[in-house]
Design brief:
Blueprint (H helix, E strand, L loop, with lengths): L5 H28 L6 H17 L4 H22 L9 H23 L14 E2 L2 E2 L2 H23 L1 H11 L1 H6 L4 H26 L6 H4 L1 H11 L4 H17 L11 H13 L11
Antiparallel strand pairs: 1-2
Keywords: Amino-acid transport, Cell inner membrane, Cell membrane, Membrane, Transmembrane, Transmembrane helix, Transport
Main location: membrane
Family: Belongs to the binding-protein-dependent transport system permease family. LivHM subfamily.
Length: 286
């Protein structure tokens, strides 16, 4: 057990920013496609690797992140059109199993293209101390970019025709189709947006730690925990769940050894399923 340190809280905000952004993309995909896509972690990894490749070519880092996001979005659309669309009328469990195969394929394709080595983004700069908290330049990038992307996505969901159509189709696909919404085209938009979000989240995850072929797969547990905690298909719940999970996981070091903190996500997942199966903003149960 260790004493409370404000540094733990700040690190939790950084981790929460990563989880919240990734969880938002996954819950948007689930809301319309109605199945858990286990290949989502590979979208994160591909976004990080594409950005890394652009950085190797001396592309400015902001542009590299943009290219990584677009690349991940394109991969998400291609996998949906080529693979998942063929099983759209099947049971969601079938799609879940298919997504496992897609995940293995994308992960091994990373190894073919980039190899299995571990890579790092080099982000230099001074780390100022604010109120006793050491703030790394990489952490500033992660939190700032995450907040901007979250704000942009919620602006799209609430103020644009595509966003309103996405929310309507997520609530009731059949009713949205009757009201004249082109749900087939909407699936492409959602796949693209979800993939772009995943690509950005993957790049930021690489900034925070390192870049490996399994980075997205290993990050799936906290992402799923945040989505389920916030309520599957609920964008606001996913973001709140992501920040709660990130902060809670870091503060748990106060009570448990640091090597056990990754299990915190599983604990929250179990408690959430037992007490609030409909999410944080759903009805509580016993």
């Amino acid at each position: 057990m260790v004493a409370f340190d404000p540094q733990l809280l700040w690190n939790g905000v950084v981790l929460g920013s990563l989880i919240a952004l990734a969880a938002l993309g996954l819950t948007l995909l689930f809301g319309l496609l109605n199945f858990i896509n286990l290949a989502y972690g590979e979208y994160l990894a591909w976004g990080a690797y594409i950005a890394l490749g652009a950085k190797w070519a001396d592309v400015p880092f902001i542009l590299a992140i943009t290219l990584g996001a677009i690349g991940a979005g394109v991969i998400a659309v291609i996998t949906d059109r080529v693979v998942f669309k063929q099983f759209s009328d099947r049971d969601p469990v079938v799609l879940l199993v298919v997504s496992i195969g897609v995940a293995f394929m994308l992960r091994n394709l990373i190894r073919v293209v980039y190899g299995g080595s571990t890579y790092f983004y080099e982000i230099s700069g001074e780390a100022p101390v604010v109120l006793g908290i050491r703030v790394l330049p990489a952490q500033i990038v992660i939190v700032t970019l995450s907040v901007l992307i979250l704000a942009l996505v919620f602006l799209i969901l609430n103020k644009t025709r595509i966003g309103i159509a996405m929310r309507a189709a997520s609530d009731d696909t059949d009713l949205a189709r009757i009201r004249g919404i082109n749900t087939k085209r909407l699936v492409i938009y959602v796949s693209l947006i979800g993939g772009v979000i995943a690509g950005i989240a993957g790049t930021m995850l690489g900034i925070d730690s390192n870049i490996t072929p399994t980075m997205g797969f290993l990050f799936l547990i906290p992402i799923f925990a945040a989505v389920i905690l916030g309520g599957i298909g609920d964008p606001v719940g996913a973001v709140v769940g992501g920040y709660a999970l990130g902060i809670g996981q870091n503060l748990s070091i106060i009570f448990i050894p640091s090597e056990y903190t990754p299990a915190f996500a599983l604990l929250i997942l179990i408690i959430g399923l037992l007490t609030r199966p409909n999410g944080l903003f759903g009805e509580a149960t016993r």
